[in-house]
Amino acid sequence: MHRLPRDPFLRSPLRLGNLLRTGRSRCDMENEPASATKDGSLHGYESLHRLLSSELPPHLFQEVSRVLYGCNRGSAVTPVPQTEDLSAAAKEGNFDVQTFEFTADLEQMRAPRNVCVGLIQNAIVLPTTEPFLKQKHAIMERVTSLIESAAKAGVNILCLQEAWTMPFGFCTREKRWCEFAESAEAGESTKLLQGLAQRYNMVIVSPILERDESHGSTIWNTAVVIGNHGNVIGKHRKNHIPRVGDFNESTYYMEGNTGHPVFETEFGKIAVNICYGRHHPMNWQAFGMNGAEIVFNPSATVGDLSEPMWPIEARNAAIANSYFVGAINRVGTEVFPNEFTSGDGKPAHKDFGHFYGSSFVAAPDASCSPSLSRCRDGLLVAKLDLNLCQQLKDKWGFRMTSRIDMYADFFREYVQHDFKPQVIHDSYLDGLPAMNSRTT
Amino acid sequence: MHRLPRDPFLRSPLRLGNLLRTGRSRCDMENEPASATKDGSLHGYESLHRLLSSELPPHLFQEVSRVLYGCNRGSAVTPVPQTEDLSAAAKEGNFDVQTFEFTADLEQMRAPRNVCVGLIQNAIVLPTTEPFLKQKHAIMERVTSLIESAAKAGVNILCLQEAWTMPFGFCTREKRWCEFAESAEAGESTKLLQGLAQRYNMVIVSPILERDESHGSTIWNTAVVIGNHGNVIGKHRKNHIPRVGDFNESTYYMEGNTGHPVFETEFGKIAVNICYGRHHPMNWQAFGMNGAEIVFNPSATVGDLSEPMWPIEARNAAIANSYFVGAINRVGTEVFPNEFTSGDGKPAHKDFGHFYGSSFVAAPDASCSPSLSRCRDGLLVAKLDLNLCQQLKDKWGFRMTSRIDMYADFFREYVQHDFKPQVIHDSYLDGLPAMNSRTT
């Protein structure tokens, strides 16, 4: 597990980030060698892409990049120039900012459908021991400044990370974190973002802990979709709830009841696959079947648990469903006031592990952007031509070859109590003569 | 597109392979610099893993490996020692051989369930201008020698590549390649493998072009599963048929009619997701729902088309379905007698591109093996403890959180002609006042 140093204040990546030399891709620590075990970096590099591009000769990196990150219309997805304004804000605010462009072929019957998407990843700002309201307001202030930078970059659709207003306290199993829950339609975070959305003409996806007063004050893990006029377009509740090891979010909220809505905004059709839903290929697929062109995956996940899965699942979804995916993970190690155990035989501890950031955008043509920092707040900006979605649908034909009717029948059978899996036994296993296998 | 030199004989990787210095991970060409454009290698490296492990300092490679290849019970999936016998056979036969082990936690209520799996990737042996029977027999001879090596390695379950008895002539749209089709139960290739399966006590999965005499002599893309006693356990027909660009395999055969069978063998429950089916997450899932512990994905796919997808789809399937995947791709550039076009505006040509090999094993814990060579025949041997499948099911809980009933209902609705996608419009798009979005 990647841990930050013992001093609780130094365990905030925001502060550690000050030690990172942001002008270089390798971020050496002062007075001691950079280490993957201390600052959440990869031996001093903020991301895999930066490590590889710095350490490999250019001709080899080009090939490695082609295999690992794919090509968008024949070229690697490379950074596009940022305004001085944006770079200055990133330097001043000590966050990683990266800007990319995904293009599509020009068509004869319709114009390009360009949209600028933004992803924000961030650490909590204050220690979890501070008063809750103070903690929330500090995060809101930080995220507001990041949203202002997104506006500078011309972002049309922005998505924040899962449960962005709070520390990810669900690992503690303490109910007091429920206090961070808000009304999706009228909560403080929604009101804040409505103002920003209107001011910056920006669609904002806001994943929060929701309290639904209309239905017994129940708690949900919800993404609120706010239109670029400041209106609440709607909301979606997390469909699949993790019980991973002893980490059981159903201590707090249950499986969502909002289906697989696609939100038709001025800038494109979007959907939100919240966190653990990324492990469920059908969840991704259902958003695609409802017409999504961009699916955001706001997440909160730690290194030891899921890091090797992270570059795979969102990209697989983008490929299989011919849409863009914006994958977002929070960053930093959150230390909680009281110790808790994790059902793994290890001693009680006060943190869940290092949230490894690494947010990125994946495209339907199997290309993807490099990731944001593994150890600092970040803003990823990607200019997309949404025409790429239909072009890839037409090229690969995954929809027309998907045989949904066959799977509809199969799933209907599967959920019956007397379902018999389609298994063909080797007849030798039953001691029968060869050549006459039977099906159960 | 990675092309081999102009001389048609030099375009066989088998022959080019003789120039590769197999004792070193970097395979320099004689008298000229190695190049990704000539021999199908990555600038002289046979695989991405070899490139990275050679070019990066060990402490950085360790971190890169952790992110890219995952960990199996805390460690990278590393090569295990090979017998001298096997190494000698690989050197003599000029093929890449790699051996790995995936372990599981020890359980108290059942013993480890160890099985040794083998994957074979190979180029065609003779030019496609040779008489068909001669071509087929030359491949059969080569593959027999590779199977003998697999037996030396102690392989229990072996899978060959898609349509292994023939060049992948479907890109030409010429019907004469149908001559390679055989009876699944009684064809020459099946008879050959039945003998080898019995001799070596090995389950063999044999993906061939099938001609079904009982049903109007129709052609299918079929995997025959041969038991370790030499019996034919059963067969599976490719479920999803590609129409990618103008590459349309339904010129030859249609969508399979065998469902998603799992074959219960002496060594474990296996299934076969043939080639293009790897782009369909539900196809992977249905094999898992029927109980597969290992799913093979025998393929034939080329660099420009799919290489960035290759490390993603099989691994995503292994993760999402808590089973092992053996992904196999043929290798080499196959030059056909007559030129053909590819519906892409480019001039007529005689080859489909470079089949990039790169076969590998992916595990349910998100770890995976390094890949076989990108430019030579190869045998990958992986010792698996199948207990890992259930351990990962219990850890991540993807099955119990999968909500199949919800998707069964959704798919049933989707296939109706009057299906209305679940779309929530921003009311501003209709010129309506804000705050009252509507659902269609």
UniProtKB/TrEMBL annotation, chains A, B:
Gene Ontology annotations of biological process type: beta-alanine biosynthetic process via 3-ureidopropionate; cellular response to nitrogen levels; uracil catabolic process
Protein's name according to its UniProt entry: Beta-ureidopropionase
Enzyme Commission number(s) from the entry: 3.5.1.6
Reaction(s) catalysed by this chain's protein: 3-(carbamoylamino)propanoate + H2O + 2 H(+) = beta-alanine + NH4(+) + CO2; 3-(carbamoylamino)-2-methylpropanoate + H2O + 2 H(+) = (R)-3-amino-2-methylpropanoate + NH4(+) + CO2
Gene: LOC112280685
PANTHER family: BETA-UREIDOPROPIONASE, NITRILASE C965.09-RELATED
Pfam families, per database record: CN_hydrolase
GO cellular component, one term: cytosol
CN hydrolase domain residues: 115-386
Pathway: Amino-acid biosynthesis; beta-alanine biosynthesis
